[in-house]
């Protein structure tokens, strides 16, 4: 009986997994754009999206989580107005690999082209990539991208079908934010990046000025760099409280609470109230805009594929900010902090520019030891997607909740990226790690750390990553020279149930730091019990509160550090009013 039940279950499972019966017709979609969009030929990634609901446009429903909708992509070059490009069973897709796998039924279909520009790099290579247009490298909302209005289609595997989609809509430009009393915006053309990319490239920053800035023209201020993803404006700061009548029916499943939008606005107002209070430290806080053709953020380091972003930020942008806004301009008066991407950056720039910062506070940092590249050891594992087992094919997860429940796997996350773009051009997380950390390939694009389709790891690329960007390895390798410059400067925080398993690399870093000598690192590594991503060292408040308080979380520690470490004769008074 048990054997029969197992056989029956296998038959049922196979039936469920087979979306289209043998011999079924596969739908085709022809996509074009009108001359009103442009009279020029276009290069880019042409995307077809299918959603089983019309709660919002399909382009806003793409992801790798449990509610992921369907997307298929092809590269196009020289696509002219009126040209019809066919997307059929050969197009790579996610979560279904092919249009042949899409079950019959009602869908809402939409097309979009993520437009590429041609860059003639300093290295002699020519590459085609999507430039940032002020939106922070988001293909769904990138100004200038063409898209079609969603239409309802019925897919019937029993009938041949060709659906026409015409991209006659263009995403509008973004209105730049305006300066206020406290928040100023700066943008410079980087000579270093322009030389690398072969066309004008810019860096920007949102600068929060201290209370009394105009009233104290002789004061000079310490500089706080708050690293993180692309900031359209300075976030989490508001001079006005939320409207008491504001709707509070919005629900955030991650935190299990209603009214989070109003809560965030109240926190932003509370920060403003603290900021102008009498005893609050008078600092400059800076959020950097360094979106690039690969991602919303450069990781603030020099890179073979992205160019010298680290030097451009430290040698061009930071001096300009300190010049315009009266920064003290010395390493003892500069600090850096951030979470996730910003956490990695905070630690990396403290290490790579050890004399230019007096402390880093790295919360939930992206992998800082590549033996724990999330759940992959890039040096020993053969495959990034599957555990090594003789008789099982067990996938490696990429995302969990605080209970350990899995929402996506490594293969799924990377296959979504592969649908969005080849050659590390998806604009997503795994591709930017590759773009930052990898050597440049013969074609001018990043060398793959692992095969995007199969997950097979390239040990030569892994060796390059180790020597250039494995932060724990570099610290251990160079501690004799780095250690004396970093004593008391390293602070790392992570939840022990980080959604992306980032705590695993922090454990390995801590193991090294605890054993340091000549000197002992004399910093801090701390963990949040059952805390998810973005935990930053706050043991008193839940994560949904503390994640909004980075700018106040570390300032008391920074002030104490300045008082203890400022060199003799340093300006520790002009800004203490």
UniProtKB/TrEMBL annotation:
Superkingdom assignment: Bacteria
Entries under InterPro entries matching the protein: AB_hydrolase_fold, Mycobacterial_A85_antigen
Record-given protein name: Esterase
